[in-house]
Amino acid sequence: MGLLQLLKSQFWILLILSYVFLMSGLVVNLLQLCTLPLWLVNKQLARRINIRLAYCIASQLVAAMEWWSGTECTLYTDPKSYPLYGKENAIVVLNHSFEIDFLCGWTFCERFGVLGSSKVLAKKELAYVPVIGWMWYFLEIVFCKRKWEEDRTTVTQSLQKLHDYPEKFWFLLFCEGTRFTPKKHQISMQVAESKGLPKLKHHLLPRTKGFWVTVQNLRGTAAAVYDSTLNFRNNEAPTLLGILTGKKYHADLYVRRIPLESIPEDEAECSAWLHKLYQEKDRFQEHYSQTGRFPGPVRSPPRRPWSLINWMFWCCVMLYPLGLLLIQLISSGSMFTIVSAVAVCSAVSVGIRWMIGQTEIKRSSNYGIKEAPLNNN
Ligand SMILES: CC/C=C\C/C=C\C/C=C\C/C=C\C/C=C\C/C=C\CCC(=O)SCCNC(=O)CCNC(=O)[C@H](O)C(C)(C)COP(=O)(O)OP(=O)(O)OC[C@H]1O[C@@H](n2cnc3c(N)ncnc32)[C@H](O)[C@@H]1OP(=O)(O)O
Ligand SMILES: CCCCCCCCCCCCCCCC(=O)OC[C@@H](O)COP(=O)(O)O
Predict the structure, then answer these.
(1) Which residue ranges run through the membrane (predicted)?
(2) Which residues contact 88 (CB under 8 A, 6 or more apart)?
(3) Does domain 3-307+357-369 correspond to CATH entry 3.30.450?
């Protein structure tokens, strides 16, 4: 292990990065709160400001991945579709097997200039995660309870609001609805069998209602579906903690652009279309596991310096007062201040550990387990 790598893996470095992320995130959340009155007067301006504020938070994680860990991202895609990426609204369909799949998604958003405005159909629990969840509220992220009876109306309403969104956005859908685990896979394949659908090896059976409602409500707003399949080289199972301690991974993403008009409007046909798409995705993953690559040409966009510049800016802004405080602390020698500083450090590390925990598959929800196939009609 090199000296730099050793340094990156030190706990106190992680603590400093976490402090910068948490404190700058809370400052950004506060600024977002201040834009509330502006929504009443000039909604489009409020949205544009919030896109930039969200960029300040999300791009710190992207910088950690691209610049700190040096993780590389290769894009396999058709050269004819490539010039359209970032220039049109799109619905992105992505497999949900990795702890940092959302971060890889963000990295591509950054490279195509849509990071601040990127959206997702997210489980409601994430709305309460400090910094990220609070930021999403101002970004008009669509939340769902994964209970169709309730989601049908709320998801439709949230999607309708995006019709006049002032900047280009990608709307991410993890149609599997939860992270892949062997147990969830086994249960979802029982569901597939009970529905007479072919079994999938690398994916859970997709939930089709969210996809259908998204496509229907974004017709005329989004131009295409980007069918995206992600994998990592050398059978790696990357983690956010790995990224933050400087571990380098190599992600491969296969993207196919499918014009929205080619997707059926009828719910049953749309559902069958999505099942077929997942059967194809499964074949791409099988191809990857056999050959170590996806089909088609490679066209990788380079990383941009903006995420790093933003991160450096927040490091300077947040570390300056921390430095002053430390000097004061050491020179005062007061037991009370030292105990307070230790308490703050502990709170930061517990808070960040909890947030990182949200990304860990071993802490994944029971969704997809609790509904036994026998309960399905
Ligand atoms: C060029 C570069 C291209 C791309 C770059 C890539 C990406 C970048 C893009 C954007 C980035 C943006 C942001 C990223 C940042 C962060 C994101 C982080 C995380 C958030 C992600 C989540 O929170 S995922 C969880 C929430 N999302 C979803 O669940 C979406 C999918 N779900 C649905 O669509 C659901 O239908 C629903 C949520 C709308 C409703 O849920 P409900 O449970 O009520 O679902 P259903 O009614 O569908 O369920 C009943 C049907 O399911 C069948 N069933 C029962 N048991 C199972 C089972 N175990 N497995 C499968 N199916 C099952 C049942 O039979 C019912 O079937 P029907 O035939 O009746 O439908
Ligand atoms: C430099 C930064 C230092 C500190 C970084 C801490 C950042 C914490 C970021 C938390 C972001 C949370 C996003 C989680 C996304 C996710 O993967 O959600 C899972 C859901 O899809 C499905 O849930 P489940 O049903 O439980 O599998």
Answers:
(1) 12-41, 308-330, 336-356
(2) 168, 222, 223, 224
(3) no
